[in-house]
Structures are given as structure tokens and as C-alpha cells.
User: What shape does this take?
Amino acid sequence: MTSIHRILGTIIIVLFLLLMFWGVILRLAGRRDTPVAFWAVQHWTENVLIVQTVFGLVMLLIGYRVTGRPLIWFHYLYGSLFPLIAVIGGRIAALRREQREYVGLAWGAFIATALTMRAVQTACGNSFAEIAACFT
Assistant: This one.
């Protein structure tokens, strides 16, 4: 069960990174409109994030806990609440612009990537080796 949680977390990080770098490339290219595929990836990222959050809450309710780390409650905040806020904030920023909606979405993805990686760090450890071991 926890391996599904890890796989979903990895997918979320990859999708956030994709949105972030795609937004940078679009901006550097001077594109004014947001591609339909960009919106599709954004929606799928939000859907996977919601599934991951619900899955994490179910794991919490049935007794799975991250143990052995100080301040582990940060994992629950960084892992669910903050990325959702970043996605919603990015969406609001994108909707308030008439052109280049992808800029707000890319900023939201950047913030959500950082917060999701912080959730991984609070669950797995501080060193790169501990984080890599967490995904294997």
C-alpha cells in the first residue's frame, strides 16, 4: 500500500516538473496562448494530487504512520495541504490573466514541486541517499 503512495508521489513530482519547465520554455519562446496539452497535463496533475491526498488520508485512518523522523507531522502538511494550495493559487493566477495563463500555472507548479519534495524529505530523510532509498 505504501508503495502505491510512493509511486503516486513520484508521478506528481514529475508532472509538476514537466509543467514548470514547459511554462519556462513557452515563456522563453514568447508564446502568448496556453496550449491545450498544457491544460490537460495541469488537470491530470490536479487529479493525481487529489487521489494521492485521499489515498494518504485513508492510509492515515487505517493506521499507517511515518515513523522515526522528528517533526513528521510536516509530512502531512507538505504532502497534502500545501501542494493543493499551490495548485489552486496557480489556477487563480492563470485565470486572472488574459494571455500567458501558463505563467501562473508554471509558478504554481514550481511552488508545489518544492513543497512536494519537502514532504518526501520529511518522510524519507535529509540526505539524497535516504531520499533515493525511499523510492527504491
Summary: The chain has five helices and no strands. The mean pLDDT is 80.
